[in-house]
Description:
Blueprint: E1 7-13, E2 16-25, H1 27-43, E3 49-61, H2 66-78, E4 81-87, H3 91-102, E5 110-114, H4 117-127, H5 134-140
Helix pairs in contact: 1-2, 2-3
Amino acid sequence: MMRSHGECSIHSADRLLWIVVSGGINYEFACHYRDTVRAAARALGPGPWLRVTDLRHWQLGGPEVIPPLQELMQWCEGHELAHSINIVSMVNLQKHMLDQMMAGVARRSQRHLARSVEEASQQVQQLAPALDLAPLLAAAYPGH
Length: 144
């Protein structure tokens, strides 16, 4: 059995999922991630939702991770994802992987890129002004 690589944590508040991904990922991780994100999004209930994914510490993965991540993108687009905000550090590399994940997926949502948690938080506040991000950020980034 292959050992799963990478780590992810998912936090939710109202209509928002805030996901932090780190490490290099493999196929096993990608499948687990796909299923975990779907379950968390289902738990938000019906209606449009937002997803913030902090990819600053994501060390990418090989081509085998693309199919399950593509399945996840397809599912999100078919289940009322309104906006996705990706926090990136290696813009070109990470954007290239994101583009590969979205290849052939009909996009209904709007994708935004941010370079920091602060920038992503500002984008969320513009999209969902009533949302109090403080407890979610404290849970997602303990000790910061």
